[in-house]
Amino acid sequence: MFGIQAVFKLNPAHIIRRMASAVTKVDYLVIGGGSGGIASARRATEFGINALLIEHGPLGGTCVNVGCVPKKVMFNAAMHAEMLHDHKDYGFNVPAGTTFDWSVIKKKRDAYIKRLNGIYAANLNKANVTTVLGHATFTGEKNPTPIVEVGGEKYTAPHILIATGGYPVIPSDDDIPGASNGITSDGFFELEDLPKKTVVVGAGYIAVELAGILNALGSETRLVIRRHQALRAFDSMISENVTNEIEASGITLDKFSQVTNIVKDATSGKMTITIQCSPSGGRSKSTVVDNVDCLIWAIGRKPNTNINIDKVGINLDNRGNVVVDKFQNTNVEGVYAVGDVQGKALLTPVAIAAGRKLAHRLFDGKTDWHLDYNNIPTVVFSHPPIGTIGYTEAEARTLHGDDKIKTYSASFSPMYHAMTKRKTKVVMKLVCLLPEEKVIGLHMQGLGCDEMLQGFGVAIKMGATKAQFDDCVAIHPTSSEELVTLR
């Protein structure tokens, strides 16, 4: 990974390593070198601000190092694996026994991430953002603003941004015996080999994505979910279809289930995992899965607030997230928070946008600038991928009433599969608000839905109506044309 020495060599003038006891004061102090913190610090310096950024790990945060970027690399590899099954149907002769070498993609992926770490450091240096390497904590002192300490050094600023992100959780061994034998999504990117047999626990997008990747690349994969469907926070059409696609792909899906015990063999390293199924109104049963190489917990994330945040008196909600208003203000004057640490819309582009708008508001005179958290487009890199923006049908009906909502939907096989034995579906839905049929929700799953969402997101953000969708001439033959021809 990208170490301290590598950062120091890029531009020592922008790395502070003093041992003085005095408090260093800057204009803008950013705690966290992930996407949101870096974006905000860099934007602030464009307005002549003296910004200082503190980071204890590799630059780029979760997204670059153990999140969306390396995940997308593995998703791309998985897509190649899936299409190999279709090559014969399209007339290509694929040699029998074609194999996948995990070590090749891991080596190239890690090198790519290291390059990105270097690019982030270079961009910070170019923007004249001072970088401090180490773990930041609030001291509880004020001068007159809160003081932050890093390795014995103290810093303060009239404006302090908390952008420390979050981390994946894992159950304790007290709650689930042997739980610590499992790994999280962070550990997935440390795997040196493709596990022969994997159990993934969780029903959210991380669990769905990792299970899909591992299954496509050849791991015997099992997904354990607590209810009857995955992605239950999504539109019901998406939840139903993604669950069907998971089962159709060959993943063993344990519904109404949870892992209750894990025993790891000290010699082989393989695990025996007990899964308890407790369907509502049905008979409970236990399944014992043996010879498991890898157990992945994908059961949620928590905010990184281990910076003595209590010493500043910052309010947290019941999940431990930093409470902010629409301007990203905490309850402590001059202290702000963006990104995963504040618990809303845990997406990299959201953190970047919020961080930049905050910089404009604080230092560029845009006193009313803030991020609109409505209509944020989201993609899940499942198999096939999901694209969604706006209200689900259930949310829209609850908010506006059944008589104010009209939906349009479609389900079909994409043209790509006209030639293939392997099949996946495309499902699409528009949620419209009457009387003008303003499109307030769009949900879809299928080949290409990840790439087609962005443009429709712009239209929905601009307030497009169903009539305006219909007025756009379709592009044929594509799956996206369905969205402008729904009846």
UniProtKB/TrEMBL annotation:
Enzymatic reactions: 2 glutathione + NADP(+) = glutathione disulfide + NADPH + H(+)
Q: Does the record bear Lipoprotein in its keywords?
A: no
Q: Where does FAD bind?
A: 72, 340
Q: List the disulfide bonds.
A: 63-68
Q: Name one GO molecular function term.
A: flavin adenine dinucleotide binding
Q: Name one GO cellular component term.
A: mitochondrion
Subcellular location field: Cytoplasm; Mitochondrion
Q: Which Gene3D superfamilies does this one have?
A: 3.30.390.30, FAD/NAD(P)-binding domain (3.50.50.60)
Chain positions recorded as NAD(+) binding sites: 202-209, 300
Q: Active site located where? A: 476
Query: Could you identify this protein by its name?
Result: Glutathione reductase
Organism for this UniProt entry: Ciona savignyi (Pacific transparent sea squirt)
